[in-house]
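Changelog-adjacent note: as of this version, every example in the card shows the full chain rather than a window. The one below runs 290 residues end to end.
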Amino acid sequence: MNHDFEESGKRDHVNINDFDVLNRISSIINSEFGSNDAAIARYLIAHIRRSSEINVAAITRDAFVTRSAVRRFCNRLGYQSLSDLKESFTQSVFPSDLSHREEEFGYEEYRAELDVRMIEMFAEVESGVSDIAIKHLADEIDGHKNVEIWCTNNVSANLVRFQQEMFYAGKIVRIVAGANVAELKNMGDASQSLIILVSVSGLFASQAREYLDCRSGRKILITAFSNDDKSSSFDRVYRLGNAGNGIDRLGVYSKYAMTYFFDLLSSCYLSRYPCTKGEPLYGSTLAWPE
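Full-length structure tokens:
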């Protein structure tokens, strides 16, 4: 999913819970086959393009659940009411920033433009983030006891592999996704913390600022958004692109640039801080697990 975008089809602001809503619905659908919540989630997705027709009466009738089950479902996702939840169903929270693709954008046109944007993206990352900068961030990760990566739930899926590669080196990095950042507002041991906030367009950085400003420690922003207004809360900013409008039209930065950047960071960390103590985790004939 493309993390965080400025434009919204239904309202002029984004609730921090909106960054979680699709992943939470996905989790319910994937793991809770026969529950009331799964039935409600399936109903909402089936009617997602007709949200104006969604109401409690329709859900209870067609999903065979009670009104209290609908209320509990909304509360579970972080909303006080069904109306609040429906407001989160804007195209701005969907993968790849679909709201910025033309409906007539066919596969051939998409692939042709994606190929061009990928080449441009790699060039921008190459010019914007030097090897020295990546080595500096690897050193900061090693030098801090508590390392947190703040991001939207959709971007977090791309960062799990990085987290696991850090585990291989014996380094614990915690991924804090979406509204979960609010739970760390008053976390102790802050002086030894390194907070890396990932926000491609800058909107998540804006929404998380009130929680970030309550924390001390070192703060890093990784973004493709060139506006300096989002940078005041951070000690260092890594810019992966030159986009100044906060629009990642094909999801190139959220899906590919972030994966590329954290792959480079992982490789850098593992080469600078190899875990050589103890027994090998697997023999030389075994491939890296997929």
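Structural remarks: Residues 107-128 form the longest helix (22 residues).
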